[in-house]
Prior knowledge:
This protein is of the alpha+beta class. Among the domains are: 3-14 and 244-439, Nucleotidyltransferase, domain 5 (2-Layer Sandwich); 43-242, no CATH class; 751-844, no CATH class; 854-914, no CATH class; 921-1075, no CATH class. It has a seven-stranded mixed sheet with strand order 10-11-4-3-2-9-12, covered by helices on one side. A hairpin with a 2-residue loop joins strand 2 (48-62) and strand 3 (65-76). Helix 33 runs antiparallel to helix 36. The protein starts with 7 loop residues before the first strand and ends with a helix.
Amino acid sequence: xxxxxxxxxxxxxxxxxxxxxxxxxxxxxxxxxxxxxxxxxxxxxxxxxxxxxxxxxxxxxxxxxxxxxxxxxxxxxxxxxxxxxxxxxxxxxxxxxxxxxxxxxxxxxxxxxxxxxxxxxxxxxxxxxxxxxxxxxxxxxxxxxxxxxxxxxxxxxxxxxxxxxxxxxxxxxxxxxxxxxxxxxxxxxxxxxxxxxxxxxxxxxxxxxxxxxxxxxxxxxxxxxxxxxxxxxxxxxxxxxxxxxxxxxxxxxxxxxxxxxxxxxxxxxxxxxxxxxxxxxxxxxxxxxxxxxxxxxxxxxxxxxxxxxxxxxxxxxxxxxxxxxxxxxxxxxxxxxxxxxxxxxxxxxxxxxxxxxxxxxxxxxxxxxxxxxxxxxxxxxxxxxxxxxxxxxxxxxxxxxxxxxxxxxxxxxxxxxxxxxxxxxxxxxxxxxxxxxxxxxxxxxxxxxxxxxxxxxxxxxxxxxxxxxxxxxxxxxxxxxxxxxxxxxxxxxxxxxxxxxxxxxxxxxxxxxxxxxxxxxxxxxxxxxxxxxxxxxxxxxxxxxxxxxxxxxxxxxxxxxxxxxxxxxxxxxxxxxxxxxxxxxxxxxxxxxxxxxxxxxxxxxxxxxxxxxxxxxxxxxxxxxxxxxxxxxxxxxxxxxxxxxxxxxxxxxxxxxxxxxxxxxxxxxxxxxxxxxxxxxxxxxxxxxxxxxxxxxxxxxxxxxxxxxxxxxxxxxxxxxxxxxxxxxxxxxxxxxxxxxxxxxxxxxxxxxxxxxxxxxxxxxxxxxxxxxxxxxxxxxxxxxxxxxxxxxxxxxxxxxxxxxxxxxxxxxxxxxxxxxxxxxxxxxxxxxxxxxxxxxxxxxxxxxxxxxxxxxxxxxxxxxxxxxxxxxxxxxxxxxxxxxxxxxxxxxxxxxxxxxxxxxxxxxxxxxxxxxxxxxxxxxxxxxxxxxxxxxxxxxxxxxxxxxxxxxxxxxxxxxxxxxxxxxxxxxxxxxxxxxxxxxxxxxxxxxxxxxxxxxxxxxxxxxxxxxxxxxxxxxxxxxxxxxxxxxxxxxxxxxxxxxxxxxxxxxxxxxxxxxxxxxxxxxxxxxxxx
Length: 1076
C-alpha cells in the first residue's frame, strides 16, 4: 500500500471530527449477521444476550419516590454498547434481636432511634421480622432478625449508621454507597461480568443515544450458565468476548528537556499537532495545536465508545498529563462531557479523574501483580518474558530533536521524521494490547469477578480479601446465615505462628539429584481438611459439617477440576484453550487468597513436620523445607547399581547423571503416593496432598527461598526414548537394536508406567460389588474403599480369572472385572495383564522395526494375500458391474502392492514384538528355573564324586560347635554370592541375545524328558559355537564348574562336622579366595 492510500484528517477544532472510524464502523466489519439476529430478537421480544463491563449504583424518581437502580454498561452479541437498568430492588440490612429483649419492646425502641435521625421519616423505610442462623457460634435453631427495607441505598446507609451508633448488632450491612451492587449480586447471584440473559425487558429506542437502552426487573436478569442457545452463530458469538479495548500511548515534548482474541488492532489512529507524513497502517489526524489535539482525542473516544482502556504506566503519567494539560487549557469539562454520557462539572472531574462507562487498566500495575517477584517492570522487560516482539527503539533525545525541527521548520524531511515518532508511539500502544492478549488478562479478571460476584473493575482495582469476603457472604446467604460485612474495630494484637522453615544446607549439590515435594493448595487444602471456618464451633463429630470456608473452597476446587479436564480435550494452540486456561489459573490464584490466620499456619507446621518425619524414616535426606515444600534426596541404596556401573566404566558421566535423574523420578513418584496415603490416614480426607513436579540436578541453595538449578520435569515415554536414542549424535546401533534395548530396560517398569487413573462415577460402586460377588471375596472396606464421586483413584488391570456360571460355562471378563487397586494386587500377588498395557505399544514399536528384511513378506505369502485381496475386489466389482454394466477387470497398482507389503511387515513385526516382550516378562521365572536346574545338576555330580559320604552326613547336625557353624555359614554366603553372579551373567547373556536364555531353557525342559549324554552347558556352547566369542558365556561356564567344587566342599565339610574332625582354619580362607 502506498502513501496515496494513507488517510489524513485535518482538525481545526469544533464539536465533530469527520472521517475517523466509529464503533459502528468496526461492528459492521465484524458483524457476521449478528446485528440482524439482534434486531429480530428485539422485534419479537425474545431474550437478549448481554455481557456486563461497568457497574454502578444509581437512583431515579419513580412515582415521586427516589428509587434504587442497578445500572450496568456492557456489550450485546454483535459488539454494540448497551445500558441496562435493573429495577425492582429494595435495599435493606438486618438487625439481630437481643437475646434478653422481646420483640414487642425492642421494635418500638428501634423505630424511635431511626426516626430520631435527620431526614428520615416513616415513608422511607419498612420493617419485617425474619429468621436465620447467625454466623458465629453453634445454633440448632434460627434466630430472629429485624429487616430494615428502604427505597434507595442512600437512605439505607443513613439508617444503618444511626443504628450502629447505639451499639446494635447488624448484618447484611455493607456500609458504602458506591459498592452496594456487590451485596446485591451475591444475594441475587447476579452476573456482573459474564454473559447474562435479559427477558421481559423494556427496550427504549432513542436515536439520540449512542447505545442501546434496556430496563428489566431484577428477576429477569439471569446468568447464561450452561443454557447455550441453539443457533450456532449465536452460540459461537458467546464464546468470543466482543469487548472493545482502546490502547493508547502519548509522547510529550518540553523545550526544557524534562520529562481468537486477536492482538491485531481493529483500527489505529495517530493524533499529532505538527505536520506528519501519512502512513497507510493508521489514520493520521493533524490538529495544529495542543488544544485541538486534546479535543480530537475526546471526539475519537466518543466515536469509539471503548469498554476498556489500557496503557502502560498511564495512571502515573499519561492520564495525569492529559487532565492537567486540559485543565490548564480550560477544556477539561468540555472533554469529559464529550467522553461520558453523563455530564459533570470540573470539581467532580478533578476529584475523581475517572472515565465513566469505561474501565481503565494500567498494564504496568497489572503485570506487577502477575509477576510480583520480577526485578524490573518496564514494557521491554514484560515483552521479553512473555516472548513477544520488543517495542520500537528510539532515544528520547532523537525524538525531541525531530519534534523541535518540525516546530521550527516544516519540511518533507521533518514530516518523515515525525512519522517515525508516530510509528514509535503506535507500536508502544500495540505491544500493550499484545501483552494483555498473551496473558489473557481480561478473561482472567472476568473469571475472578464471576466467582466472587464483583464487577470487572473490582477484579483489577481491589485486593483478594474483598473478593473472598464477598464470596463467603454469598455462600452464607445461600445457607440462610447472616453475617456482618463491617470489619471489627477490635483488631487482635500479638503475633500468629508463622510457617515452618527447615534449616537450609547451603551450597552446591551435584552428587545426587534433589526433588521438590510440594503441598498442592496448602492453605485452601488445610481449610477444607480441618474445616477451619469462623462460623463453626465443633462440639462433636456428629456436628462436624463443613463450614463456609470449606464449602466455598470445595466448590472452587471442583470447578477448576472440571476446567482442567476440558483443557485435556482441547488443542493447546486454540483460542478456546487459551481462554479456559486463563480461567482455571484465575480460580487457582483466587483459592490461594483464602487464609485463616493462626489455625492454618499451625496446621501447616504440623503437617510439614509430619511429612518430614515420614520421609526421613524412609531414609530420604531433607536439604531444605519451607511452608509447603520439602527438597529431598533419595536414599543411597537406590543408586548403588548405577554407582557400580559408573565405577566400572560401564556408564559415561553424562549417562550416569541421566540415570540418577531417572531413578529419582521413579522413586519420588512412588514416594509422593505413599506420602498422600499417610496424610489421608492421618486426617481422614483426600484434600491435603503433595505432588512433585521436577527433579533439580545440579542445584544450588543460597538462602531462604533462594535456590536455582537445572530442571528435569518429565521422564520420556518409551516411544520418546526410542526416538531420542535413534537421533543421538554418534549412535552406532540399528533402530532394531535400540527398540530391543529400550524394551529390555523398561520391562520391569511396565506396570508402574501404566498404572491408570480415572474419575470415579457412581456406577463404580456397583462395579466393585459385582467384582466381589464374582470373586467370592468379603466386602473388605480397607481393600475395596469406594471412591467419592469425581475423586481420582489408581487401578491396575490384572490377568482375568476364570469364572464359570452354574452350567459350567465360562463367563467372559470385561475390563471392569479385571481392575484392581494396586494394594490389592500387591497383597494377593495378582498377575498384571502386561498384554493389556503394551497392546498400544505393539503398533508404534513395530513401525520402528518393520523395515528389517526378516519382517518382509515372502513372495509366496505376498502372492496369497494379493489373491485374497483380488478375490475380495472381484466380488465388489461384480456388484458394481451389475449396476454400471462395466467390463473392467480388477487389478492392483504399485501403491496397492506397497500397502499390502507394509501391512504384512507390520503384522510380522507386531508378532515378533509380542513374543519378545513375553520372553522378557517370563525372564525371571526362566532364570530361576535354569539356575535351580544347573545347581541340582552340580549337586548330583558332587555327590557322585563324594560317593563315600553317607546320606546322613549331608545335613547339618544340631549339636555341632559354633566354629563349625561359622564355617558352614561362610559356605552359605558364598553359595548366595555365586548364585547372584550366575543370575547376573545370565541376564547379560540374554541382553546380548534373547535366544541364549531360551536355548538353555529349552535344553532343560528336554532334559526332564530324556537323559542327555553330555552336560547341558556343553550342549549349549556346542549349539552356538561361542567358546572364543562370548566372554560372558565362558564366565558363566567357569562359575558353574565352580559350583560343582563348592558343593563338593560343602559335602566334605558336613562329613567332617559329622565326624567331629578338627579342620584347619586356613581351609576357610582358601575357599573364600576360590569362590569370591
